[in-house]
């Protein structure tokens, strides 16, 4: 019976000529790694995400036939991490590795599910811990765990994953890609800076590259608006009111009145239009701001600058207000900020923003740099020299990571590489997305086209989606655009973003519009349906 069982297992494991057994994969991992499971899923399956996988709870559905392998890696005894690979039977010869989200721990199965539907062998790590995105307790005085999240788990799973992919198919991987947004975008830049050989193409959305300052900037904004009984305090109920006024003033300034703020950088927003009249007793009820509240709003819409004109962090854009209630809750700094201070940079659970806040903590944070997470090595010439490509994008309506932090990154890389004779356009291109929030979505009052199959976008709409339905090509799908650039040398100058009515795929496409390579911008040609991409062109500013 036992022998029969082994024979049967062998038969099942080698379905379609593929050996999806833990014992097979075990031959291809080194002594720091252990294959913990391997199983075949037939076409149409759902991968049921375990309840413990707190960071990424969505289960991908309707998967193609594939082999799922899990590996536990112990780079140092105190800090193991895990990774999973989805190996589709119908393989396109490539791999894609996905990135993280805030401080989340868990394998992003829904994201690797997206990759596998294209035919990529798709790799995702749990970043060495299990936690919801804003929870940093796992990192408290745990530098090795922080390193797993900072860079090591992505690097290790991509490199070991490649060996396992090649063993499974008995063929070399043709090209290796990375796709991530937010912390995942940071992982993309970190990888390009630390391990320039890991990927041939990197898609990096809204990168949290300036991680050591980011959550503290959110805290600074909150603290400028507190305490709640101060005359300068604005309640979160005012954020949509401010957002509506931003659209009212900034939308027409970009040349077309369509609800979308296409050029927040160059909008002259007169905040005084929000001021209350003389008889107003309750500004929140009247949807207006007092003079003291307006002063707070001025601070928020300007860069955070400290003593001696020291620039600390760029401000959020006009049009980003719909996401402020999570970033700047009106009663206390966000949980993300508190977890950063207390656990990620080790100040302890007793750290109290009301007693212990001071602006020098931003420099302390940068010295602490948990897990070497900050992706601020602007000399990306080693990555350039490998011939690899990186595509960055960022929504103008992002209310979690200021859009201008992407400009800062781009300009600093430019400033570093230009003197070395390196033209960024040859390997690094950036696209801004008018009206897009953090990584996906659009505020209801802007209703902008934001979908282009960027990292995490497909599973924000559906658990069974990939690419751009009806438009699965390099013009509309940014991952395919990256593939076309890496493999065929066709460098993208624009990507067409799509908007479905109510963001449900059952509805019709209501708008498509080009996103332009920075610093160009999409301009309406002046006639024709503005919801059709052919009536727009990418133009320089001057
Ligand atoms: C195992 O492989 C990983 C990834 O290539 C490497 O970082 C690690 O040092 C290796 N461990 C051993 C014990 O060889
Ligand atoms: C002001 O109006 C808001 C919204 O209607 C209400 O929640 C709040 O309690 C009012 N404040 C005062 C002091 O009446
Ligand atoms: C501002 O800069 C001056 C000159 O470098 C220095 O002496 C002074 O201590 C600085 N002040 C603060 C508050 O950092
Ligand atoms: C789209 O949203 C609008 C407004 O909420 C609603 O009236 C309409 O029924 C929705 N359409 C579909 C197809 O869900």
UniProtKB/TrEMBL annotation:
Keyword Disulfide bond listed: yes
Region described as Disordered: spans on this chain: 521-542
Annotated InterPro entries: AB_hydrolase_fold, Tannase/feruloyl_esterase
Top EC category: hydrolase
Signal peptide span: 1-17
Pfam family, one: Tannase
Zinc in keyword set: no
Biased composition (Basic and acidic residues): 526-542
Single GO molecular function: metal ion binding
Keywords for the protein's UniProt record, in alphabetical order: Calcium, Disulfide bond, Hydrolase, Metal-binding, Serine esterase, Signal
Its EC number(s): 3.1.1.-
Xref: SUPFAM superfamilies: alpha/beta-Hydrolases (SSF53474)
Family per record: Belongs to the tannase family.
Protein name: Carboxylic ester hydrolase
